[in-house]
Design brief:
homodimer, 258 residues, mainly alpha, Ribonuclease iii, N-terminal Endonuclease Domain, Chain A, Double Stranded RNA Binding Domain, 3-stranded antiparallel beta sheet, elongated, RNase_III_dom (chains A, B), rRNA processing (chains A, B), cytoplasm (chains A, B), rRNA binding (chains A, B), tRNA processing (chains A, B)
């Protein structure tokens, strides 16, 4: 494959950041190429397939490091460490610090995407680079890169249990002298398969409602939505994953229309 | 570690099923030991930590197989194949067929758990065995086991997009001559951060409500809940994972009390 001058320069800069020359630089070029730059070309020319593979390879590398580093932690603590380390925010931060922002190949439609698009591209490129290293030089190559760039952030603090949303909301509201109350507003479905809807109030004001398989779960969900609406939490990983899927879907729909 | 007669017999049988003698059979013993059999002992004596590691190793092995087997699939199709292959149902089925049900070491409190407890234990043991193989004989050992026992189930059919819940509900209800209708019943939060609640009706009868960040998402969620309530779907993977976490938590709480 012949590379443009921009592509060639970015591949070389990426190799410098990674600290390794690739046997097949085209794999690395795919790993740093945003889908906006490959419209109409086969899927293998952007980072999307590599991101899928890299996500799993990275998960295995991080799980293995945490498993050996913290022999006293149970699977709950280990899972929280892994989730924190491989979160979008964590990976985007690491990728930015390494200087990947300047080597991503964007198409013209994405150049103006701004901060948010860049954040997500940085995360994806980090995962895709892990896959590219795995394909080009085996698990050892991928592992060396992750150990150098991500594992130094790993800490036992990441294993701490998150607060439960009802206590968190109570704490926040009590700073303003308010105690939240809960009301069951609806019960759906047959007895063996109920869904509950609960509402949480600050005084007379309904803050949010939540659904769940138990009353407790519905209240917890309502508290969580209230915390989000009041701006006390960042978007959860699941929400972000969803937003990402929806963005991809709308991109696909656009492509199919165009 | 001295093993009881039951433990020794089960380790030998597990080695026969896996087709490999372990350098360190104690790792395999942990992988087939349900947490109910290790009360009061350190976490490493049951399969829970190994299940954490095995889940990630298995994910990487399956992702790698799918990536190479289906070069024409995009990351969405590859993800659906991976999710289907490593689902609880898929792993429990494979583990049962291999004969793992007879080698799991349960504690006395779990012997009467019945079908559901066994299903979840089979899934966990499969993942833990993958980790045990990885620790005892490297990634090649784990890969050989997964290739022999799980990968033969992999098919391109698994990459198909799931139906959207609104069409699925419409189809189901139209078999009975009913067209579902949707009503927006509530809007929460400030304009830039809205949550919508929609209800779905069959004639005058409210079937379910759903919440979402958009009206479309709220309706889709309502349709999904209605499908569940009407018994048209199996519990989702997320629901199952949640049920599993809650079960673990209640077990931990019991332990802490006792």
């Amino acid at each position: 494959m012949t590379r443009t001058e921009e592509q060639q320069r970015k591949v070389e800069e990426a190799q410098r950041i990674i600290g390794r020359d690739f046997d097949d630089p085209d794999i690395l070029l795919s790993a740093i190429t945003h889908p906006s730059a490959t419209e109409g070309k086969p899927v293998k020319f952007s980072y999307e397939r590599l991101e899928f593979l890299g996500d799993s390879i990275l998960g295995a590398i991080v799980a293995n490091e945490a498993f050996h580093e913290y022999p006293e932690l149970d699977e709950g603590g280990l899972t929280r460490i892994k989730v924190a380390l491989v979160s979008g925010t964590s990976l985007a931060e690491v990728a930015e610090k390494l200087g990947f922002a300047d080597v991503i190949v964007f198409g013209s439609s994405e150049r103006g995407t701004g901060r948010r698009g860049l954040h997500s591209a940085l995360e994806n490129v980090y995962e895709a680079v892990v896959a590219a290293l795995f394909l080009d030089s085996g698990i050892a190559g991928a592992q060396a890169f992750v150990r150098r760039t991500l594992i130094p952030k790993m800490s036992v603090e990441m294993a701490r249990e998150p607060e439960n949303p009802k206590s968190a909301l109570q704490e926040k509201l009590q700073e303003e002298g308010i105690t939240p109350t809960y009301k069951l507003v609806e019960t759906q479905g047959p007895p063996h398969d109920r869904t509950f809807v609960s509402q949480v109030f600050a005084g007379m004001k309904a803050l949010a409602s939540g659904m769940g398989r138990t009353k407790k779960e519905a209240e917890s969900q309502a508290a969580k939505t209230a915390l989000d609406a009041l701006g006390f939490t960042k978007a959860s990983k699941a929400d972000k994953a969803k937003a990402k899927r929806e963005k991809k879907q709308s991109r696909t729909e656009k492509k199919n229309k165009g």
